[in-house]
Design goal:
Elements: H1 3-7, E1 19-23, E2 31-36, E3 42-46, E4 50-54, E5 61-65, E6 74-79, E7 85-89, E8 97-101, E9 109-113, E10 121-128, E11 131-139, E12 142-148, E13 155-156, E14 179-182, E15 186-190, E16 197-201, E17 209-212, E18 222-229, E19 235-241, E20 252-255, E21 263-264, E22 275-281, E23 284-290, E24 295-298, E25 307-310, E26 316-320, E27 324-328, E28 334-338
Antiparallel strand pairs: 1-28, 2-3, 3-4, 4-5, 6-7, 7-8, 8-9, 10-11, 11-12, 12-13, 14-15, 15-16, 16-17, 18-19, 19-20, 20-21, 22-23, 23-24, 24-25, 26-27, 27-28
Length: about 350
């Protein structure tokens, strides 16, 4: 993606170029995981072992529970088709697990259970259906990361290769987007709790580098909650303090050099944001971000320009190129965002 396209986009009729549709999820669980395979196939996940799937763009959602996982909170789902998907549950010790289905949820195979009582896994990302990586909070000054090279077995990365962590530093399992992959070997994960950093690797975790960010930090409830990379150079991070979601501040930043440096975005109305991404459609280029206060759309991450939003309590976002996005939130909320002829609201 050229920097000019990324940073200097022109959008005509911003407020008339968005459509938000509330969809019937058939569940009241708190939803935090979301993965869009296509404009028709989307998966979501949440509390009490819940997962959802639609095969028709959200006209019909089917909600189910993974047998034996009713006590788990599935904070992340990564799907590759109508049949194949992974679920990650977040929680202390053995509550952090990974499951996989290859038959649309008819059966689920447990692939990983965290054996470290102090451990807490947060989210996962994949380069392809059989190569993935998951991030957990730091223990004894080192992050917990596991990888799979066959889509079946998960193995820890060699501790010597991992970057040192500050005391208590970890990731946030708020939206399943605290880690992201790109290309064949790039991976980035975002941290919080007293600090707000981005850790990156261009060789699938063999070596790492760390970058400080200007995102709100300094408390146990603040830091970077979500990272999205549009390509190997251009990316977005979002966060804030989830205990004070109404507080606006340094909650959105961008990179143009692959995460080596991060700059604050000057766009207006930056409350706490738990998920962020980028749309690249002719009539809706720009960033989309969600949090417990509102859904934001900004046409230019570098300028204090037009910003459209709607007051919604949302946790996670998923994108389908070039112009479709879904969002999920508490009490089974599912919405679809598509450029259209009606407004999403502006303030």
């Amino acid at each position: 993606m050229h920097a000019r396209v990324w940073m200097c986009v022109l959008l005509t009729g911003l407020c008339s170029a968005q459509t938000i549709t509330f969809q019937q999820s058939h569940t009241t669980e708190n939803l935090r995981g979301l993965s869009a395979v296509s404009t028709r196939i989307v998966w979501a996940s949440g509390t009490h072992g819940t997962y959802l799937r639609t095969l028709d763009g959200g006209s019909t959602w089917v909600a189910e529970q993974v047998p034996g996982a009713e006590a788990l909170d599935f904070r992340d789902v990564e799907a590759f088709s109508a049949d194949e998907a992974y679920l990650l549950s977040a929680g202390p010790g053995e509550q952090s697990r990974i499951y996989k289905t290859s038959n649309g949820g008819r059966t689920w195979t447990p692939q990983f259970t965290n054996a470290e009582p102090r451990g807490f896994y947060d989210c996962m990302a994949f380069w392809d259906p059989t190569h993935g990586i998951a991030i957990g909070d730091s223990i004894d000054g080192r992050f917990e990361l596991i990888t799979t090279d066959d889509g079946i077995h998960w193995n820890p990365l060699t501790p010597a290769t991992l970057p040192a962590a500050f005391e208590g530093e970890g990731a946030f399992a708020a939206s399943g987007t605290c880690i992201t992959t790109q290309g064949q070997s790039n991976v980035w994960f975002a941290t919080g709790v007293k600090v707000a950093r981005v850790v990156r690797s261009n060789d699938r975790g063999k070596t790492w580098a760390v970058a400080n960010t200007p995102i709100t930090q300094g408390t146990d409830s603040s830091g970077v909650f979500s990272i999205f990379m549009a390509d190997e150079k251009h990316g977005l991070i979002a966060g804030g303090d989830y205990k004070h979601p109404e507080q606006e501040g340094a909650n959105l930043a961008y990179t143009e050099d692959g995460g080596v440096t991060w700059k604050l975005s000057p766009v207006q109305h930056q409350p706490f944001l738990s998920a962020v991404g980028y749309l690249d459609a002719p009539n809706a280029r720009g960033l989309l971000a969600a949090g417990s206060e509102r859904l934001l759309f900004a046409q230019d991450v570098q300028q204090d320009g037009s910003l459209a939003f709607r007051d919604l309590n949302l946790n996670a976002l998923a994108f389908v190129a070039p112009k479709n996005a879904w969002a999920v939130g508490p009490k089974g909320v599912v919405v679809r965002w598509v450029p259209g002829n009606s407004t999403a609201g502006k303030n």
